[in-house]
Request: fold
Amino acid sequence: MAFENLSEKLQNVFKSLKSKGRLTEADVKAALKEVKLALLEADVNFKVVRQFVKAVQERAIGQDVMNGLNPGQMVIKIVNEQLVELMGSETVELPISQGGTTVLMMVGLQGAGKTTTAAKLAGKLKSKGKTPLLVACDVYRPAAITQLQVNGEKQGVEVFSMGDKKSPVDIAKGAMEHAKAHGQNVVILDTAGRLHVDESMMQELADIKDQVDVSATVLVVDAMTGQDAVNVAETFQEKVGIDGVILTKLDGDARGGSALSIRAVIGKPIYYVGMGEKLSDLEQFYPERMASRILGMGDVMSLIERVEAQVDEEKAREMEKKFKKAEFGFDDYLESMEQMKNMGGLQSVLSMLPGMGGKMRELESMIDEKDMARKEAIILSMTPQERANPSLLNVSRKNRIARGCGLDIAEVNRLVKQFEQARKMIKKMPGLMGGAKGGKRGGFRLPF
Reply:
């Protein structure tokens, strides 16, 4: 999970601060030394670390902290505020024009996930009412055009291609004419990447910018490359000029140093972060929410948005009625598992809840994704009648289900027992689910 190591180390530092009634200057300096080491281990740029620790220390050894009722909490508050400032303070939107055509040129090295990110972004903009056009300007990488076409089809977005014989500049110009003729108001240019930065690559990007009125040059970088991501961003800024960054594979980077360094080093915002392989796994970057995740305070707003995007309100109301009467069956159980998968899985959801950050390592051993797959196989081996009415499951039926899914009958018995326990527990928990009341956001409340 993103920032897992950093989050764990920072929480240990703050735990020791909270246990002290009063803080001395020596206490603060000792704690910040640990913070400094944690940031460096997270692969945060050393200049950024030095400036960050200096800024926190100047504020933390002031009278407000030393004489406060909760000095440890005050230090955490200061660290949180400085983290937000480090990552840009405010969320920055892509410069999408309300009238006319917006042109986004996606740039970056090969392997950063540029083509997939272009398709993810197209889907995101389409959901906001835009009519995007994906443009295949990568004429060098084998199957790059096909990859964009496949992903574009999945997103329901047209892909413009002129094959691999035309120059990227001609393709970009042709795409502009096509977009104008077909009323497409966002053109996303998927340009070629290289295994490393070279002059011909940079010249090609400069030529496209000369011939096409690019609204924003968006650099796509792999978060898992750590400091290399920052170095790549510096080079692209110097050679081509970029307007902002999309960080990919942040969900697989336990360190997260690039997310904390890029804004401070190149002065450009992070627009989005890739948090998974699915085409829907592209999240707006909110500095304050990311700081909250790092410090183990959760990210409830992002969780609510994820729930709203994935959960059908009408189905949620139907489920609520069944829950209240304890009438839900295995089909409902299966559906709730599918919803959890769509939201990134149970582990991803739990990581967004306050206080769970430091417990994720412990939870990882308890959350078995393979077990979820086994449960699904058992349920799908039941007849529609058995799924709707679990009381039908006698010994002979369970034996047949076990043979059908290729598992031991003990696994079937365990699932049935867990299901019955869950049904009894939910019946005792009124108000588990409910629609938005009093203008509050969120279609229902999660059972955690």
